[in-house]
Design a protein that fits this description.
The complex is a heterodimer. Chain A is mainly α. Chain A is about 85% helix and about 0% strand. Chain B folds into 2 domains: about 90 residues, no CATH class; about 40 residues. The chains are: A mainly alpha, B mainly alpha. At the A-B interface, α1, α2, α3, α4 and α5 of A face α2, α3, α4, α5 and α6 of B.
């Protein structure tokens, strides 16, 4: 039964991810809140599952010529190092704390994305 | 050659001469994106997109697609670190992971049909709610 729930939550997160809405940001809390998966384990699933999923998506995007190659290398230059640092620091962070930090991160990110179109509207009106 | 390539992006806010500035902006952005994606095991993509649209001036579709190309190697690196350090549960990995892959294909196909503008605020509200839930009742 647990496995069925894992699959269902995975599908829900995957659908959002495939739509380009940041599926991991919902997959992780669904796993920790509903399935009581440990925070680090939930984060690990998201990272690992992203790889095959995004390879499929990338093939489609490359065919459609939607990839802007010139930005990838400069971004990865710093990001590749920092992602390893982030992972190592995270694994040393206490689970309960990490859960709260993740909650703060989600709230801020959701708030920022929600506010962005409103700010745009106000700016356009002023102009 | 370089100039031609630059033309592909719509509405470039940074002048063509300022390619160097653009590179520096990307490297600085990469610091935050990389750390977040490793620390929280996700969410890096949602940070890359505003960097690519606001700072570099990419159109939305291109920004979303390019974000995947950036996050893929990052997830691979941090995913391996998580697994090597034993932060994985086999059941969730196998079944949850399989679900994600299946869902990912469904989501990519659905994207053409569902109006993004209507769905997005709902998605962000759920994000905020689950964030608050984790902060106050996470234990």
């Amino acid at each position: 039964m647990t496995q069925i729930f894992y699959i269902l939550i995975g599908i829900a997160g995957g659908v959002l991810g495939g739509m380009g809405m940041g599926g991991g940001t919902l997959l992780i809390p669904m796993l920790t809140l509903f399935m009581h998966t440990e925070q680090h384990a939930a984060q690990g699933v998201n990272l690992v599952a992203f790889v095959p999923m995004s390879i499929i998506a990338l093939i489609i995007h490359i065919k459609n010529k939607l990839i802007e190659k010139r930005v990838i290398l400069p971004l990865l230059l710093s990001a590749a190092v920092m992602t390893a640092v982030g992972a190592l620091v995270s694994l040393k962070t206490d689970t309960a704390r990490l859960k709260i930090y993740f909650g703060i991160f989600l709230t801020l990110l959701g708030g920022a994305y929600m506010a962005a179109p409103l700010i745009k509207k106000i700016r356009n009106k002023k102009n | 050659m370089q100039k031609n390539r630059r033309k592909e992006t719509s509405n470039p806010p940074i002048a063509q001469k300022n390619r160097r500035k653009e590179k520096i902006a990307l490297i600085i952005g990469g610091i935050a994106v990389g750390f977040v994606n490793g620390y929280f095991g996700g969410g890096g993509g949602m940070l890359v997109i505003p960097v690519l649209t606001a700072l570099i001036g990419l159109e939305k579709k291109k920004a979303h697609a390019t974000a995947i190309a950036v996050i893929l190697p990052l997830s691979l690196i941090s995913g391996i670190i998580y697994l090597l350090r034993g932060a994985g549960e086999r059941g969730v990995l196998l079944f949850g992971g399989a679900g994600v892959v299946v869902g990912g294909v469904i989501g990519a196909l659905l994207l053409k049909k569902i109006p993004d503008k209507k769905l997005a605020p709902l998605f962000y509200s759920i994000m905020i709610l689950s964030g608050l839930w984790l902060i106050f009742f996470g234990k």
